[in-house]
Amino acid sequence: MNNLVDNTSVIDIRGLKKRFGLGDAEHYAIDGLDLRVNKGEFIAIMGPSGCGKTTLLNIIALLDIATSGDYFINGTDVSKLSSAKRARQRAKHIGFVFQDFNLINNMNVIENVALPLTYSGVRGTKRLETASKMLANFHLHEREYYMPSQLSGGQSQRVAIARALVTNPSLILADEPTGNLDSKASHIIMEELSDIHKRGNTIIMVTHNPDLTAYADRVITMLDGTIDTDTKDIGKEKKTTKKRPLNKLKAASKKKKQSTKPPKESVK
Ligand SMILES: Nc1ncnc2c1ncn2[C@@H]1O[C@H](COP(=O)(O)OP(=O)(O)OP(=O)(O)O)[C@@H](O)[C@H]1O
Ligand SMILES: [Mg+2]
Asked: What is the Cα gyration radius of the chain?
């Protein structure tokens, strides 16, 4: 277990639902999901295509709004904010890393990294100074004045990670950050994320690659818009919780009261 984890919830989500479509096309991409994330955790989210991973990440990032449910960031209720207030909360708390990097092509590297500081109200020279320091951390100092088109995929993603971190957010979200990279560049990006985690940052990463879950200390699998399994490293052990519908949970808890045996769902 990462000893930087403490019990302060960065994220607390309860009964989250997201509906898309109308009439016959109506369906729930997120269908009653609860999630609590503690400071310093590195969570990998997996699950089949269409199970709702990106939808969940976009809601956590305040890029999308849930249909119903509660969402708290660092104890603040952010579920019902106006779009201007959501943007402010996003700038304050969240760094997002996209699969396709999302760098702005007509801005150079340092301008891309400095951009989130504009939304946080930092002044011009200070913005460039801070961005420059952040790029130095990623050994990209000499590429400050390159344009995104002059970078390799791996370098672009490292610039995107530097941009995500420049505001010192409490939460870093990454949707398949290595999805467009070869295995060598993927490894470098994962080492960067791992390093950022070790420095005390909280990370939630969506991935299709089971090998990459080795970098995380908690692995969540999703199915049909809910959490299916949730596995945490506890010391050297792993503890998996199988999430079940409420009626089955009640039946299980009755059984548990009658039996002194440990519950079957706490395994590994
Ligand atoms: N803007 C939208 N309008 C309508 N349906 C949507 C929209 N965005 C997502 N969906 C649907 O919601 C469900 C979940 O999609 P989502 O993109 O979150 O899945 P995912 O787990 O990220 O999949 P993948 O692994 O392919 O990226 C899918 O059925 C998808 O078609
Ligand atoms: Mg997705």
From this structure: 20
pLDDT at 242: 73
Question: What digits encode the pLDDT tens for the residues 193-232?
Answer: 998 899 889 999 999 999 999 999 999 999 999 999 999 8
pTM: 0.85
Q: Which ligand is nearest to the CA of 48?
A: 1
- Residues with CB under 6 Å of ligand 1 are 20-21, 29, 47, 49-55
Closest CA to 163 of 181, 187, 144: 144
pLDDT value of residue 235: 59
Residue 156 has pLDDT above 80, yes or no: yes
Boundaries of every domain in the chain: 9-235
95, pLDDT greater than 90? yes
User: Which atom of ligand 1 is the closest one to the Cα of 47?
Assistant: 21
CATH architecture observed for domain 9-235:
3-Layer(aba) Sandwich (3.40)
Angle, helices 109-119 vs 153-165, to 10°: value is 30
User: Where do we find the tokens 């969540």?
Assistant: 220
With a CB cutoff of 8 Å and minimum separation 6, the contacts of 205 are 42, 43, 44, 45, 173, 174, 175, 177, 193, 212, 216
Determine the residue of 27, 55, 212 to mutate for testing ligand 1's pocket, defined as the one with the most ligand atoms within 8 A of the Cβ atom.
Answer: 55
State residue 14's pLDDT score: 95
CB 42 within 8 A of CB 172: no
